[in-house]
Write a structure and sequence with these properties.
This protein is mostly helical. Helix content is about 75%, strand content about 0%. It has one domain.
């Protein structure tokens, strides 16, 4: 049961990150290659490592966008 909750937690993190993109950066969200609504561990071609890598990619991209947005605000002010 614990591993199932770990999987669910990972998918929830991916979902939450993509939702953040959708709400804050809709133009970026439209260009994401995948959305978590269709990702499951039943897809045998997708490994846990690929899910982890995708989550890290999303986190990094979101952090870059947030930092750029913050820096832009500083320059404009």
């Amino acid at each position: 049961m614990k591993s199932l909750s770990n999987r669910d937690g990972l998918l929830k993190e991916i979902f939450d990150l993509t939702l953040s993109f959708q709400l804050k950066y809709p133009e970026i969200y439209e260009n994401l290659l995948e959305t978590p609504l269709f990702l499951t561990y039943k897809n045998k071609d997708i490994s846990k490592k690929e899910f982890l890598n995708y989550r890290e990619f999303l986190k990094a991209q979101f952090e870059i966008l947030e930092a750029t947005k913050a820096n832009t605000r500083l320059i404009v002010l």
